[in-house]
Amino acid sequence: MRRTLLTVAVSATALLTACTAAQQKQPADPAAPTPGTLRILASSELADMAPVLEEVRRDTGLTVRPTYMGTLDAVNLLAAGKADGRFDAVWLSSDDYLRLRPEVARKVVSETPIMSSPVAIGVRTATVKALGWKPADVTWSQVEQAVQNGRLTYGMTDPARSNSGFSTLVSVASALSGAQSALTDADVAKARPRLKEFFKGQQLTSGSSGWLATAYQRRGNVDALLNYESVLKGIPGLTVIRPKDGVVTADYPLSSLAATDTTAREDVRRLAEALRTPKIQREITRRTHRRPVIPSVPPAAGLDTTRRRELPFPGSRSVADGLLDSYENELRRPSRTVYVLDTSGSMRGDRLDRLKKALGDLTADFREREEVTLMPFGSGVKSVRTHVVDPADPDTGLDGIRKDTGALSADGDTAIYTSLEKAYERLGTDPDTFTSIVLMTDGENTTGAKAAEFDAFYRGLGTGQREIPVFPILFGDSDRGELAHIADLTGGRLFDAQKGSLDGAFEEIRGYQ
Q: How big is the CA angle at 489 (ends 209 and 44), to the nearest 5 degrees?
C-alpha cells in the first residue's frame, strides 16, 4: 500500500469538524468573521500559547480564535480548499509541507517565523548515566547503537499526522544516510536498513505530543521520547539531548491566507509584529521553552545555546512520500487492533449505516502488515473476525474487512464491559506490535459485566496486557462519563463523534495505532 504525506484518504471537512469539536474552547463555527478577531488554523501544540495570546490581545486589541489540528492534517485541509473563507491565517509548526506542493504554497503569503524548537531526544537521566553518554556529544548513530544493543526504547508521534514525528523521521534518515543536502530517494534507500533497526526501539506511537507524554509517564518502562525540545523540557526526569550531527527545527511561521482581504492581512501583520517584540518573545521562551527569533532575547534558562547543524528537509514531494511510505509499511512496528463495535438494536438505521461507511472508508488507511479484528457486539460478542493486510496480497485482507463490515446487523442489548473483556482475552500480549482496542458505542452498558467488574478484571491482567489502551468513541447516546472512565483506566483517549463525525473520529485514532 502506498501512503503519501500530503494525500490522506479522509474527508477534510469531517476532519475539521472532528478536530474542532475535540477542542472544548473552540467556537462552534470558525467560518463567521468578527471585526478585530483573527481566525487561525494552528498546529495543535500551540494550545500552550493561550496566555501569551491573551497578553497580545491586551496590548493590541487583536483576538486570536484558533482551531487546532495536526500540522499534516492542516496541510491536507488547505490542499482540499476547505480553509478558504473559514480562516484568515495559518500558524503551523512548519510551512515546509506547503512548499512541496506549489498549488498549496500559493494559498499562503507573508510567512513570518515567530519562534523555534529543534527536534531532540529526552532520555531518562538514569539511562543517560547507564549508557555513559555526555549529552553535548551524543549523535544519532550512538542512539541507533543503543537501540540495537537493546539498551534504549522510545516513543514518538506519528509522522503521517504530526510535524514533530515527521521532523524526527527526517532527522534520523538524514543523519543515518549521511546526506549533505536535501534528502533524495537514494539517501532514503541507503538509510533504510539502519532505519529498520532504529525503529525496532519504538515502543509508543501517538497522534499528539500531549498523549505521548502522558503514556510515557504512565508506562514507566520506556527510556526516551523523540519530540520537539520545547515539549521534552516540560516532562520531569528527562535529560534533553540535541544530537551533535544535526536536527530539523520548527520555526512556527504565521502566514496570511491569500484568499483574505487587505484588512485581515494587516491584522495578521500586526499580530506577527506583536509576537516578535522583545517583551512577548521573553514570555514565549519562558512559558513554552521555545527559542526566540529575536537575537536580543536570550533563550529561557536551561536551553542549550550550542549551535547544531540544521538537517535539510526533503526537496520534493516524491521523496517525502517515499520516506513516509517506508516508515508506515516497512520500518515501524505493525499495528494490531481490535475494533469492539456496538451493533445493538439502537444502532438500527442511520447509525449502523454511518458505522459501515466510516469503517469502509477507513480501509484505505490501513497499513501493510496490520492486523485488524472486528468484534461486533450486542447482548454479547456476536463474532470475531481477524484480517491481516499482507504486503504480498493486501487486497485480500482489505476486501475481507469490507465484506465483514457490510454484513454487520443491529440487534440485542449493549454489553460494553463483557465485550471489552473478550477483546483483552483475544489480544494477549505481543511486544512487536502497536496494540490497541477501539470501542464504538451509541449507548450505555445495559447487560453483562458492570463497570466495577471490568475494573477488577483489568487490574488483574498481566503487565503487558494492562499496557493495551482502549480508545472509546462517543457516539449517539453513549455516556461520556462511562467512556471517559474506560479511557482513563486503560491509558487511552476519548474521541467525540457526537459533535464531530464518526469518520473523523476513526481517522484521528489512526495516529495512536
A: 20
Contact (Cβ atoms closer than 8 angstroms) between residue 139 and residue 244: yes
Residues 458 and 489: beta-carbon distance below 8 Å? yes
CATH number at residue 312: 3.40.190.10
Q: Which of 382, 386, 461 is nearest to 428 (CA)?
A: 461
Cell, residue 479 = 455516556
Q: Where are the alpha helices (DSSP H) in 36-84?
A: 50-60, 71-79
Q: By C-alpha distance, which of 7, 199, 213 is closest to 122?
A: 213
Q: Is residue 241 part of a domain?
A: yes
The dihedral sign for the CA sequence 172, 140, 467, 218: negative
User: Which structural domain range is residue 145 located in?
Assistant: 117-249+308-328
Residue 180's pLDDT is 79
Looking at the DSSP bridge assignments, the partners of residue 390 are 393
How many CB atoms are located within 10 Å of the residue 426 CB? 15
* Separation of alpha carbons 457 and 21, rounded Å: 32
Q: What is the pLDDT at residue 100?
A: 85
In the predicted model, residues of the chain with pLDDT beneath 50 are: 2, 5-28, 30
Nearest-10 Cα torsion for 16, 22, 23, 27: 60
Residue with cell 529543534: 118
Strand partners, 124: 238
CATH number assigned to the domain comprising residue 495: 3.40.50.410
DSSP helix/strand/coil, 327: helix
263 Cβ contact list (under 8 Å, min separation 6): none
Do 401 and 321 have their domain in common?
no
pLDDT tens track for 379-429: 999 999 999 999 999 999 999 999 999 999 999 999 999 999 999 999 977
| pLDDT at res. 125 | 96
Burial of residue 117 (CB within 10 Å: 0-12, 13-18, 19+) is buried
pTM: 0.89
Phi first, then psi: what are they for 303, rounded to 5°?
A: -90, 120
Q: Do 273 and 244 share a domain, yes or no? A: no
* 355 neighbors 440 (Cβ within 8 angstroms): yes
